[in-house]
């Protein structure tokens, strides 16, 4: 193992250790917040694979998040599934839908790709509303505590919930770290930098982008399924445009194309809104000003700035 | 000896403009072939059709006895072609090492990649720059990096589009030695404006003019060819 690898493992492992330990010291309010942040950060990690590392800007990731959430939720509600197979159903749904969308959307690039992903996500949102009889539309439906017993463990209990969120986040983070350092991930970065050249090195860039989109969509769906399961609710708002924009913002703030960026961005934005809404009702204004300042002074995002100024080898 | 690459009646039209017209080109295994011609003669377009970057208007390309006209670029590279760009096209924000590693990793894994990268960089004299960002290299060094990326693929056919443009005298001499070292193992198709280099390394020379093959022969024959001289002076051969 090289020194570089050791440092990388120490940094990312260190974050996981801190998050693990945090549950024993945090007050209940922040404890609950952090569980939520870890699930949403997993969503951002999925988004970052496609946007940050492969350079494809999707405006439709809410489709994958919601696919996971609804396949899980409907599976429990109407399929009588227990949490484990329901979660798995969410993951599989995300893989299938992202694969199908990739086949269509990867025929396009740039703005057209953004529009195609946005349109399909909108179609997904409308589908959820259309089948309101089952999905309960915007109002959504609650997943009861009794339905959230995983192998006898009550997922609505804050401690268990924190553990589950931590587990999902640790897996997503490790997967993303491993992938971007593996040959497959290196090719994704190269595609982001200069796709034409990658092709002329003999790589099938279409297949690589397809793979990136499926991994990205599947992690997003896992986050969606976990969110519904841990917080006991599935609703159409999670399929709306807003939930496609959120991961983009989180990733941009934290640092696109960095492994830690999605977590940092999600944490930052969560508390930015949380704190500013405590101060004033015009909290979106404060949040907006801070965001503008960040894009001016840290255009690469927070972790991106660290990479630029401090540690070039930050993955 | 057998042909590694053959084109038949290969042509490319850009709207009204005929960039390449009816080119039959045969490369023998192991030879170093220079492709020369005035600016705009169609050299880059011709090799673009050979390696799959540009779709031909008509004609065929065969590699190792197999018709590859319909094959996408990445598959042709997979068969053993490598192409270095005339307009430098390295991964500017990635390290020099990673640029070459990407080229090597398609055929190698693990520690073999590192040694292939090291070897290719040493061949072009860039081993000391391995950790730098490719975009920070001088133009000439980026050209050398392009060549190293070609070498790291260990291709059967190496296509180089004006590799010596922007190189210093010393670097050109090193390049000439490098191509000499490949002779016999790797077939080379070299687009080159520097006649000294052509003279030093080419087994045969093909001259392209207005998209057509004007002449083909040994460097000596081409040197003495009056039509070629006329083309380079910009007048019609009489
Ligand atoms: N994509 C394109 N669209 C239209 N015309 C093109 C295109 N690519 C090349 N051409 C034209 O085709 C002709 C041949 O161009 P090409 O680049 O192949 O010449 P070349 O021999 O490589 O020249 P140079 O020595 O300057 O590199 C030129 O007249 C050029 O303007
Ligand atoms: Mg050219």
Automatic annotation (TrEMBL), chain A:
Answer yes or no on keyword Cell membrane: yes
Question: Membrane topology per the record?
Answer: Multi-pass membrane protein
Q: Which UniProt keywords apply?
A: Cell membrane, Membrane, Transmembrane, Transmembrane helix
Alphabetical list of Pfam families matching this protein: BPD_transp_2
Give the molecular function GO annotations.
Answer: branched-chain amino acid transmembrane transporter activity
Location comes to: Cell membrane
Q: Which GO terms describe its cellular component?
A: plasma membrane
Checking PANTHER family in the record gives:
ABC TRANSPORTER ATP-BINDING PROTEIN, HIGH-AFFINITY BRANCHED-CHAIN AMINO ACID TRANSPORT SYSTEM PERMEASE
Its name, as the record gives it, is Amino acid/amide ABC transporter membrane protein 2, HAAT family
UniProt source species: Roseovarius pacificus
Automatic annotation (TrEMBL), chain B:
ABC transporter domain boundaries: 5-235
The GO terms describing molecular function are: ATP binding; ATP hydrolysis activity
Q: Which InterPro entries match?
A: AAA+_ATPase, ABC_AA/LPS_Transport, ABC_transporter-like_ATP-bd, BCA_ABC_TP_C, P-loop_NTPase
Extract the PROSITE patterns matched here: ABC_TRANSPORTER_2
CDD domains found in the cross-reference section:
ABC_Mj1267_LivG_branched
Database matches in Pfam families: ABC_tran, BCA_ABC_TP_C
Report the protein name in the record.
Amino acid/amide ABC transporter ATP-binding protein 1, HAAT family
Q: Which organism is it from?
A: Roseovarius pacificus
């Amino acid at each position: 193992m090289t020194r570089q690898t050791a440092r990388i493992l120490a940094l990312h492992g260190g974050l996981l250790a801190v998050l693990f330990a945090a549950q024993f010291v945090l007050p209940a309010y922040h404890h609950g917040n952090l569980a939520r942040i870890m699930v949403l950060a997993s969503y951002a990690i999925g988004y970052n694979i496609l946007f940050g590392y492969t350079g494809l800007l999707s405006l439709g990731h809410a489709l994958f998040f919601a696919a996971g959430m609804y396949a899980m939720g409907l599976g429990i509600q109407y399929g009588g599934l227990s949490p484990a197979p329901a979660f798995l159903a969410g993951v599989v749904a995300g893989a299938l839908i992202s694969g199908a969308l990739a086949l269509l959307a990867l025929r396009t690039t740039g703005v057209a790709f953004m529009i195609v992903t946005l349109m399909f996500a909108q179609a997904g949102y409308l589908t959820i509303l259309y089948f309101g009889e089952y999905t309960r539309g915007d109002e959504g439906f609650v997943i009861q505590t009794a339905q959230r017993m995983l192998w006898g463990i009550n997922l609505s209990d804050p401690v268990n919930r924190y553990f589950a969120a931590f587990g999902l986040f640790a897996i997503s983070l490790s997967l993303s770290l491993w992938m971007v350092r593996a040959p497959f991930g290196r090719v994704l970065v190269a595609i982001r930098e200069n796709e034409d050249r990658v092709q002329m090195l003999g790589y099938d860039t279409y297949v690589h982008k397809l793979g990136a989109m499926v991994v990205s969509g599947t992690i997003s769906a896992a986050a969606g399924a976990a969110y519904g399961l841990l917080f006991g609710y599935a609703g159409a708002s999670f399929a709306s445009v807003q939930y496609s924009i959120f991961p983009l913002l989180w990733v941009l703030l934290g640092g696109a194309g960095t492994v830690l960026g999605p977590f940092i961005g999600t944490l930052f934005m969560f508390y930015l809104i949380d704190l500013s809404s405590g101060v004033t009702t015009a909290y979106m204004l404060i949040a907006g000003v801070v965001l503008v300042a960040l894009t001016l002074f840290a255009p690469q995002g927070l972790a991106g700035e660290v990479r630029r100024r401090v540690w070039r080898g930050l993955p | 000896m057998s042909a590694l690459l053959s084109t038949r009646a290969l042509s490319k039209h850009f709207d009204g403009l005929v960039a390449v017209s009816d080119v039959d080109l045969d490369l023998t295994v192991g030879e170093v072939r220079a492709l020369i011609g005035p600016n705009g003669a169609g050299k880059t377009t011709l090799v673009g059709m050979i390696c799959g970057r540009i779709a031909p208007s008509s004609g065929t390309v065969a590699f190792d006895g197999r018709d590859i006209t319909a094959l996408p670029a990445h598959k042709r590279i997979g068969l053993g072609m490598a192409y270095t760009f005339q307009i430098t096209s390295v991964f500017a924000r990635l390290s020099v090492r990673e640029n070459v590693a990407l080229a090597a990793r398609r055929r190698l894994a693990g520690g073999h990649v590192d040694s292939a990268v090291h070897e290719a960089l040493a061949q072009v004299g860039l081993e000391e720059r391995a950790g730098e960002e490719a975009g920070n290299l001088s133009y000439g060094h980026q050209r050398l990096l392009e060549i190293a990326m070609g070498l790291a693929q260990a291709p059967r056919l190496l296509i180089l589009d004006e590799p010596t443009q922007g190189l210093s005298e010393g670097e050109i001499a090193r390049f000439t030695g490098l191509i000499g070292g490949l002779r016999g193992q790797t077939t080379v198709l070299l687009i080159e404006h520097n006649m000294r280099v052509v003279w030093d390394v080419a087994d045969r020379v093909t001259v392209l003019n207005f998209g057509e093959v004007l002449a083909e022969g040994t460097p000596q024959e081409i040197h003495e060819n009056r039509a070629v001289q006329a083309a380079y002076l910009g007048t019609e051969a009489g």
